[in-house]
Amino acid sequence: MKAIHYFENGGPEVMHYGELPDPVLEDDCVLIAVEWISIEGGDLLNRLVTPPAHTPFVPGYQAAGKVLAVGPRVTRVAVGESVVGFNWCGSHADLFAVPEHFAYAIPEGMDVKQAAALPIAFGTAYDALFTYGDLREGETVLVQGGAGGVGLAAIQLAAQAGAKVIATASDAARLERLVPYGLDHGIAYRSESIAERVDALTGGEGVDIVVDMAGGKGVDALMASLRRHGRYMVVGAATGEVPQFGFFDVINKALAIKGVTFGREMHTPRAHALLAEIFARAAKGELAMPIDREFALSEGVAAHTHVANAHPFGRVMMHP
Ligand SMILES: NC(=O)c1ccc[n+]([C@@H]2O[C@H](COP(=O)([O-])OP(=O)(O)OC[C@H]3O[C@@H](n4cnc5c(N)ncnc54)[C@H](OP(=O)(O)O)[C@@H]3O)[C@@H](O)[C@H]2O)c1
């Protein structure tokens, strides 16, 4: 197969493109002929900080295409079906093997490229807001990293559930583009104080829930923006910096800090039902993931560089 691969952590330049042996099809797995690869925020974080489990390491969590073959213990998925696949690595290739429990059927007529971008972003956002964040109608949510994949999903889901949505992005032009997706108030995190703006927007009350995709130094401002008994949902560290929480900051405001790790629950019947509902809502036009740019798989270095440096709006996709 043709694949992006690397041998050591680092920037996009550590990635190579070339011929590798095809994936071995385990008994409980399905083999996908990849049509569209969604570059996830975690693909970049892994390349930077997670030592490769084996080398050459083919990165990538998520890709969609037609099922080419199934192992003998597969019962639910058939050859020829269109699915989105998830796995801990391997999506940056023209063949992607995933356990059957990580394959999600794409509804008839749905655009495969759009479907390829949905599961991780919307599943993660849903869990942060509702499954573990307990967001209720009328509450106020602050989304740190609103113009990224998980952020765009969180804005749409929160707004459609009747929450007031505040989100951050690097500049005002990006915030303006979030308004049609449900944004009520935007904060340009490079030029404005998040805590001061939230204070003004909430009449000094603070927000009910923070969903943090960025980590890094922004954590203190997000903690300061929460009301007493607020919930801080830890999703990711797109800044590449893993922060620490102030022990007494948590005590003083009686905050709840909760981690979200959707990937570790994507095999469950609950996650399958949730993603079927997300696909159905996307098919009706209620939910969408904007596609910023498309690259060929052979241009993987340029594609990752674009995601890292160009502040894409939504997802960047690759095709073999
Ligand atoms: N826990 C889980 O289950 C789970 C699931 C999915 C993803 N994640 C993690 O969540 C993170 C986001 O994933 P993603 O797919 O949404 O990534 P993405 O599409 O690349 O978006 C990253 C976002 O982070 C924002 N950002 C970067 N630096 C920032 C800063 N200093 N202050 C505020 N915002 C900043 C960017 O905003 P601008 O471009 O406007 O600067 C961008 O919107 C990644 O670290 C990923 O590993 C975790």
Word description of this protein:
The chain is an alpha/beta fold and 320 residues long. It folds into two domains: 2-117 and 289-319, Alpha-Beta Complex (Quinone Oxidoreductase, Chain A, domain 1); 120-262, Rossmann fold (3-Layer(aba) Sandwich). It is 29% helix and 27% strand. It is built from ten helices and 15 strands. It has helices at residues 41-49, 112-116, 119-131, 149-160, 172-178, 194-201, 219-225, 247-252, 269-283, 300-309, and strands spanning 2-5, 16-19, 29-39, 62-70, 82-86, 95-99, 103-105, 140-144, 164-169, 185-188, 207-212, 226-234, 256-259, 291-296, 315-319. Strands 3, 4, 5, 6, 7, 14 and 15 form a seven-stranded mixed β-sheet that branches. The chain has a six-stranded parallel β-sheet with strand order 10-9-8-11-12-13, with helices on both faces. It is globular, with a radius of gyration of 19 Å. The termini are close together. The model has no long low-confidence stretch (mean pLDDT 97). It binds NADP nicotinamide-adenine-dinucleotide phosphate (NAP). NADP nicotinamide-adenine-dinucleotide phosphate (NAP) is lined by residues 40-42, 45, 120, 124, 144-145, 147-151, 168-170, 174, 189, 213-214, 216, 218, 235-239, 260-263, 307, 311. Pfam families: ADH_N, ADH_zinc_N. InterPro entries: ADH-like_C, ADH-like_N, ER, GroES-like_sf, NAD(P)-bd_dom_sf, Zinc-ADH_QOR/CCCR. Keywords: NADP. This is Zinc-binding dehydrogenase. Residues 10-318 form the Enoyl reductase (ER) domain.
